[in-house]
Design goal:
The chain is an alpha+beta fold. Helices cover 41% and strands 21% of the residues. It is built from three helices and four strands.
Length: 148
Amino acid sequence: MWRSARERGRRTEPGQAATEFALIATALIALIFGVVDVAYAIYAYNTVCYAASSAIRYASLNGASSSSPATSTSVQSLVMSLANGLNATSKCPASGAKALCASTTFNPNNSAGSTVTIVVTYDFQPFGPFLPSAVLALSSTRQMTIPD
């Protein structure tokens, strides 16, 4: 009923299974690295958006009439503390791998009724071996009016 390949008249080549495994394993490892890189890019983008949302809330609630008014430096340090999972370097303007920048603009100033705009930019670099020099710029912009 069950006959081996030799009994059926087929020849098997020695090492054929190892060769097929090597071809399939290479494609599988490349797929795994790709999935991990995409997941990390989504995590990085989510972190950038969360940091921008938190920073705009902080800047709008700490206007000129606050006991500790928000400055560009305090917003940048807040964004850096919220993005600690990215292992980013604080560099403005963002250039190079893993550079994180939060630029804050008060229009016309940081008093009540003015608008504050925050742009958080992060240069994402995949850590897989297939795109070693690729850098993807992730950015999130938020704008809010400083309340009375």
